IPRI protein
Amino acid sequence: AMEAVIRPSTTWPVSSTVAEGKFFQEIAARVPRGSYHLKCLQACTSILMGTSFSTSIMKTVVMRVLTTVPLSHWWDRDFVPQLQDIVEYLHSSLQEKRLNHFFVGNKNLPKQIKLPIDFQRVEPCNLFHHLAQDPVAHAQALQEFEELQDRLVRLL
């Protein structure tokens, strides 16, 4: 489990399960009827087996894309472009060796997501920090990304 250090004397494990649920409920209320955003998440997580990418990494990418791509674009007929946006975001994050945790250190959370203010005030937590520190792990992640792309093409 990831740990957050909010103040020098305070450390505890971070779980975003409740906040994630609220985020997806909020999105579901705002996307067009027939949106496939959760099917995109399911498709992306189904191809992760055998790689070092976790479902929490993929959820983070999907949540980030959901907040950057206009929600009006999340129609069922746009399923493939949505998947491409998600994969492209993951790829650029891997190249930059940076994927910030969606909740910890995010000053731009939707107003409906209520977290302790200290969660927003801390420095963003880079989920790809280890890739920036280890060139071998970074090269392996890029190779695994190629595998994910191939799996996604076969899935479609």
Q: What stands out?
A: Residues 35-155 form one domain.
